[in-house]
Structure formats: C-alpha cells, structure tokens
Design goal:
With about 280 residues, the chain is α/β, with parallel strands linked by helices. β1, α1 and β2 form a beta-alpha-beta unit. α3 packs parallel to α4. The model has no long low-confidence stretch (mean pLDDT about 95).
Length: about 280
C-alpha cells in the first residue's frame, strides 16, 4: 500500500464535502475558492458536480490545472434506469461537460429499478443496453464511465447496483474498456465478500471514494462520517482496491448536512488532511 503519512498529492476533494457552492448548501464556496484552497494544501485533485459547473466547464478545468490540480472526475450522469431516467441527449451532455472540464472519469449513479420490473436483474440488463449505446460516444470524448454501486438501502429509487459484483457483471455485459467502477467506502464497507470481488476487478477501478459509516447514522443520504468517525475498515478496503491495481487519487466525499457542512471550510480541509495521513 502507498504511504500517505507525509504526502497529500494522492488526495482529491469531492466538492460535495463542502456542501456544493449553492446558497443553503454548506459554505457556498465557488469552484475557484475550492481550487485555490486544495492547491494551497498540496492536494492532487478535485472532483466537481454538474450543478456547480454550468457553462463554465472549460474555464474551471483550466483554472484547476493551472493551480497544479488534476480534475479527477465529474459527478454525475443523469439516471440511466428507473422512473427518473434521463434521455440519451441528457446523458451525452454530461459526457460533453466532463470532456470540456478535462475530467477523465464521469461517475454513474444508475437510477432505480424500471417501473415495469421486479427485483434488479431486468434493470441491470437494461442498464447494460443503455451503456452499450453510450460507451462509444464517451470513448470518442476520452471519458471513462464509472459505475458506482450504492448501499442496498438506496435500492429501488437510486440504484439497481447494490454490490461491486453487480457493477462488474454489468461491465462484463457491456464489454467496453471505458466502462469501469467507482468504489465508495460508504456503499461497500459492509460487504464481507468485497476483498474477493475486488481481486477480479483489475483494470476496472476508475475511482476510490473516502468517508466513513457512522454507527448511528441519522440520514441515509446526508449523514456520512468523516474518515475515522465511523466503523468502516478504511485501510483494509484500500488494501483491496490497491491490490486490484488502483493507484489513482483517493477522493474524499462526505455528505453531512448537520455536521461537516456547518463547519468552516478551512477547518474541514485541514481535518481531511490530518485524517488522510493517519487513518486512510
């Protein structure tokens, strides 16, 4: 495993950790403020959300690179399955934004089960069919698509992929080199088969997301823990991810409406650096 005790360049900030840059969400920092703060702390990258970028993708990407940061990713596509699935044009627009931003990876939260189905298998197969049609366009724009399996509590309305194995199965069905997975601690910490599954994921891990699972979480979406505040075995998970060949940035993504989003952004970023060096 890599030694993060003295090097912060393997660390990336997902802007959701500061509550996005919109009024009423976190500190309201602009992308430029976030870029400058991350660069000043020696971080290696930043991950934005489409809602923050608007029509400024190229300029924001250039600003990040000029500051020495990699734009590690963009969150996320519209849903591909379920009652709220987006159109192909909407999904292609998110790919275009990632390309203009210079983000090598676009995260996919799939959406829930299709309305006329039961269970998840039919929706997973329909997801693979949609990806089969979209993957070539993403490849043309030099964008990788990372399927992110979610904790089973999000099954039905937000995802049809509940395990890393689910996501890898869909990757196999699609068979495109630019389709892979994102491994998020919040969503996989509970899976006792994770190490065995990740051993078969070599070359297909496009992102690794850091946070923690609080023992008494009060909101399944907006009460994530900062690394070290919960029960996830962070170093064991990273060992499995790196054992599968992943050597990219570690992306801190903490949704925390009642705790971390209420704190001063500088304090949040300093805490991230300390926890990353000692616990991750």
């Amino acid at each position: 495993m890599r030694d993060f005790s003295k090097v912060q360049s393997a660390l990336a900030l997902n802007t959701a950790t500061l509550g996005h840059n919109l009024d009423g969400h976190g500190a309201g920092w602009s992308p430029e403020q976030i870029i400058d703060a991350c660069a000043a702390r020696g971080m290696g990258g930043v991950v934005f959300w489409r809602r923050e970028i608007g029509a400024r993708a190229f300029d924001i990407g250039e600003r990040a690179r000029a500051a020495g940061l990699q734009v590690a990713g963009l969150c996320r596509t519209p849903y591909l399955t379920g009652a709220e699935a987006g159109s192909d044009d909407e999904i292609k627009a998110s790919i275009d934004m990632a390309a203009e931003l210079g983000a090598g990876v676009l995260t996919i939260v799939t959406g829930g089960t299709d309305p006329d189905t039961k269970g998840v298998l039919d929706s997973q197969k329909r997801l693979a069919e949609r990806l089969h049609g979209i993957a070539p366009y993403a490849a043309q724009r030099a964008v990788k698509l990372a399927l992110e399996p979610l904790n089973p509590m999000f099954g039905g309305n937000r995802t049809c992929l509940m395990t890393v194995r689910d996501a890898l199965n869909v990757c196999d069905w699609v068979g495109s080199e630019n389709i892979g997975i994102a491994v998020d601690v919040y969503h996989v910490w509970w899976d006792t088969t994770l190490a065995e599954t990740l051993a078969s994921a070599r070359g297909r891990i496009f992102g690794y997301h850091l946070c923690d699972w609080l023992e008494n979480t009060s909101d399944m979406l907006l009460d994530r823990g900062m690394m070290g505040d919960g029960v996830a075995d962070l170093k064991s998970i990273r060992a499995s991810v790196e054992g599968a060949g992943y050597g990219g940035l570690c992306e801190v993504e903490v949704f925390s409406a009642r705790d971390w989003w209420q704190r001063a952004p500088d304090d949040v970023l300093d805490t991230i650096l300390e926890r990353f060096a000692s616990l991750c």
